[in-house]
Each structure stands twice: as C-alpha cells, then as structure tokens.
Amino acid sequence: xxxxxxxxxxxxxxxxxxxxxxxxxxxxxxxxxxxxxxxxxxxxxxxxxxxxxxxxxxxxxxxxxxxxxxxxxxxxxxxxxxxxxxxxxxxxxxxxxxxxxxxxxxxxxxxxxxxxxxxxxxxxxxxxxxxxxxxxxxxxxxxxxxxxxxxxxxxxxxxxxxxxxxxxxxxxxxxxxxxxxxxxxxxxxxxxxxxxxxxxxxxxxxxxxxxxxxxxxxxxxxxxxxxxxxxxxxxxxxxxxxxxxxxxxxxxxxxxxxxxxxxxxxxxxxxxxxxxxxxxxxxxxxxxxxxxxxxxxxxxxxxxxxxxxxxxxxxxxxxxxxxxxxxxxxxxxxxxxxxxxxxxxxxxxxxxxxxxxxxxxxxxxxxxxxxxxxxxxxxxxxxxxxxxxxxxxxxxxxxxxxxxxxxxxxxxxxxxxxxxxxxxxxxxxxxxxxxxxxxxxxxxxxxxxxxxxxxxxxx
Length: 459
Hints:
alpha/beta; Rossmann fold; 3 domains; seven-stranded parallel beta sheet; six-stranded parallel beta sheet; 15 helices; 17 strands; 37% helix; disordered N terminus
C-alpha cells in the first residue's frame, strides 16, 4: 500500500478519532522510513529516506546466467543501502537475504511441475528447437509468499520452470518491474526463438515448418496476451533484447528501460598472466583461446561453429581452453585443447580469464553474455558475432572484434587481428578493462536500477 492509498484509508476516521488517525499516519511514515518536517501549522514536508525495500523473484539463486546477474544486482543494492531480498524456488546458497522453500514438500511439488512441463514438451510438440520450454500454467504458492513480504517493489527476473503462473503475475500487490533475461516473456513457451512470431503474433499461418503436434507456443502466447493485462515496467539487459521487445506484439506498448547487468570491478580485475598460466598448467609460450558455457552442449552457444572454424582455419602456436559444461564433440576439435572442468568460484574464473588472450563468444543467440563481460574485466578481449548481446560491450577493433554473423573467415580474421600485434593487443586489453569499470560497475548500474524503482513508485 502506498502513502496516498494509506491516507485515503485512515482519513475515513471520524473527527473525534483525529488523534488516533494522526498517530496512525506518523507510525506508518516512520515504519516506511519517512521524515516529517513541520514548517508551520499549514505546511508539512514528508521526506523519504533512501531505504527502498526490494524483493527480487528468480527461480534459482545460483544456477544459470539470470541467477548470477540477480545475485550481483542484489549485493550491489545492499551495498547502496537498499533493503534487498531474493525469493527463489531453488536455494543453493546460505545467504540469509535469500528466501527459499521452507519444507521438502515445496521442493517435491516444484520438481513435479517441472517434470510435467518437460513431459508435455516431449509428447505434445515435435520441434527442432531444443531450448528450454516453460508453460507457467500452474498456480504456485510463490504468489502468497510475494504478497506476504513487506516490499515497495517486486522485481521479477527469470521465472521459468513453472515458478509462478502467468495468471498470478497480475495478482502481485506491489508495483512490478520485470527484467527480461531471455526471449520467453515475449514469445510462447520457448525461451529462445529462431523465428519472428513474437513480432507478428502467434497464429496458424506462421508456425515453423519443423514443428508438429499441438501448437503449444501459440497457446501460451495467447494465454500471456490475455493474462498480462496489467501495468508493469520492463528492463532489457541488452540493446538487442530492447529492440526485440519494442517490436514484440505483447509488450511494445509498455515502459521499457535498457539497463545491463553489473559487475563488481573490485573483484573482477586482471591477475598476473604468467602466474595464472602456471596455476592451470598452460604453456607460457602459447597464445590461449578460451571458450566456456554452462550449457555448451546447446548449439546456440556456438561450439559447433568452433568445430567448423578450426577444421577450416589453421592457427599456429595456439591452444584452446574449455571450461564449464563439457561439449559432446570435444574430441572432434582440430586444434590443441585442454578441458579444465567447471570452475565454481569467482577467483578461479578470474585467474582463467587472466591466463587467456582471447575469449571466444560464438553464440548464435545471446541475450547479453556475462562471461564476455567477466573476461573483459580481466583484460581479455572477445571475438563475437554482430547483432548479438555481447555487441553491447564489444566495440569493433576498439576492445574486441565483431565478426559478421556465422562467417568463419571473418571470425578467424578477428582472432588473428587481435593476436598479431602485441602493442595493439595491450591497447585493446586496457580498453576492455576501462569499458567495464566505467560502464558496468556496481554503483552506476545500481543507481540506474534505483532510479527506475523511484519512477514506478511515483506513478
């Protein structure tokens, strides 16, 4: 309840209860961290202290790119004096400000809904799209938890895996801002789409030819169209996502902000390259290319492109280091490579980025690409594709190389261009560090987020 609505509620007290009414107003204001300044008997200034209460809602606190981004924003807001909490369906950390399931039954029900959703996808629709599908058709107890928590703003993030039903979103009793971490909010059930149905609307005539069975994407899209009929603001994490939202039939009329993820540059910074190479057992005399993803088996991340690249293009004195999920066809690589597994702590990742000379980000579809930003913060430039999320922070031939989309020769040219001139490499590396520190630091992004919250609260 905001201040205006609260005043309307208590102003109905009869005059004889005016003292009770005034005390109630004062108690409310103090509880919401307002300062009252009485100038004279007719003038009362109400000043709110900078202590917003924010509730983030995300499926997990640690698993996935959205979870990492939410955690970073959550911690940045706390450092800025914001009362920030995160509500999740899957809690893996010990953070007291993160609220997870309270009993085993909740976890079992959540897993059953996820299993049912996957069963529906496998049996009711046949598609070449191997991305995650979320139907979010079933109500959950997450709504009750959201509405019980005392917050000024509810910040929705990645709510796939049936965390919260589409119909429950408009029942949230606080102002809502929703960060789109992928394409699901403006598509059907798919989290990444390779067609333009989100622009034209999902109808029978524009269904992809490689899909058969029930058109569940059209059903879910129409369900969103019907149920997302309430006022909320949107945050796009990249310019490419921003443009897609502006084109989308579902959300082009809404208030949309472009605010990228933040990075703590006091933690993510360059480390000694020689020492970093030694710690990972890498050859000091070889140039190091790096590729990594939590979902490397997904073709969207571009490992199949790298197979083709190294088959067609030869590089001398170079080794490819792979981390994260192990690609299925890793043994088909036509280049010296080393797989270092999954690195679970930021310091190890920091050292690995520092050991590398180039971060390869050949994603075909990428909302933002936080891995590339992490690499940049350590002075490691990226080679990426045009018109993908990493193009936000990769400026062509300034702090990296932006190759033509899926062009093997141009991508190879980008690798060579960065490595062939040591003086140029140092300039590019320094530009990477400066760009992250100046444009993606906790304070700058935190302030943009807070300003967005304040705009919503003024409505």
